[in-house]
Input
Amino acid sequence: MNQIASNPGAGISSEMLQMVVSLVIAGLHPAIVAQLIVEFVILGIFGSLQCYALYAGLRARVREAFEGASASRGYRYVTHALRAGDDPVAVSEKVVRRIMREEGLAVSYAKRKAKYSSYKGEISHAPENLVNRAFRAAAPNELWLTDITEFGLPGGKVHLSPILDCFDGGLPAWSIGASPNAELANSSLEAACGTLREGQRPVTHSDRGCHYRWPGWIAICEKNHLTRSMSRKG
Output
């Protein structure tokens, strides 16, 4: 099974062990499950979901600055670009370097292999960028952000697809899978839509990755009256 866990709603830490049990039931190799237990429980990688929520808006800004420099400048340039400009943000080089490492944003001359990216070129028409770096919301379920992030573990790679609410940084839903496929992205969006109350129709903002341009994702958005938004091309 490609998708190995998902959680609609909060309470991530309390459901951690139950999730690990579900991995065994799902047939994931015991060695990988054991490594997940070590990384998630002992080393605290599972807590990075909360860190992801904290830096979700900044991640988008970092990616935009990096791609705006044609992927040829490092974390010092990106930090300077974030601190300057029309909408400056106070951020340290250490945080920017960490985000770039986690997002696989490596300069073109580096020999280090870049991590997974869902961007496959302009495969279809992209919706307008309705957010324009304003990663804030006045009420719950007004603005959602989503992305797929890769975690490299000794036992294999795991991919996280969260839906983040810009009102309070909460995660209405998330999915974890061994493969960064459309099912992973769609499952987290469907779970998040299941938490909506009548009349709530959030703007759903993503990068320009292929998962957010395929018929399955678009169909979920249309069914739940979500307004799609995509970041600008770098």
Summary: Strands lie at 3-8, 143-146, 149-153, 156-165, 173-177, 203-206, 227-230.
